Amino acid sequence: MVRKWTIWILISLGVLSLLPFALIARARTARTAEPRIHVFPDMDNQGRYKSQQVNRLFADTRAMRPPVEGTVARGQLQEDDHLYRGVRSGEWAAGFPMKIDREVMERGRERYDIHCSPCHGLAGYGDGIVARRADALQEGTWVQPSSLHTDLVRSRPSGHIFNTITNGIRNMPPYGFRVSVEDRWAVTAYVTALQLSQNAAIEDVPEQQRANVQEQ
Known about the structure:
This is Cytochrome c. The protein is mostly helical. Helices cover about 45% and strands about 0% of the residues. It is built from nine helices and two strands. Strands 1-2 form a two-stranded antiparallel ribbon. Helix 3 (about 100-115) crosses helix 8 and helix 7 crosses helix 8 (about 180-200).
């Protein structure tokens, strides 16, 4: 027969075994102004200035320090002048920093149709839907987009066209912030092909392909 005091001991031990879990539950749910017990600090809690706080250590009292002059974000060094700025040895690059294939040309045509054709037109004569609408309104504030087939524009090297897309020129806004570097070069390649297509003679076509072109 189990004695009565043995039962009470077992009950007490059972209750005590639940006590750690109760304390853990309380610590996780209760609100307190004191920090919780941090057995391994790992430098999680340390003295520091928060955003917008005053820091008398510096003459401008700013806790948030501006980057040192010349600082470049990781992955944004952009050392390749040809790729990122269209320049080689201080001059506008005449070629492309990448291989131009059908995939690049198709991408360039797609990006051109989206970003350029509203003003310059699908064929590049400055007669896009936006330009036609502005001409119809006749408000006198619209500047006609440049044709891409003038002697001046056709004489410009690829790097100059890339820079124009990136930074804009005269009344044309910049597109560098919305069109990636690779897509800007793809558009440049397509514009070059578009210029050739509108200003080419049959003699410019390889002899074995002339018959096919003439039939079309």
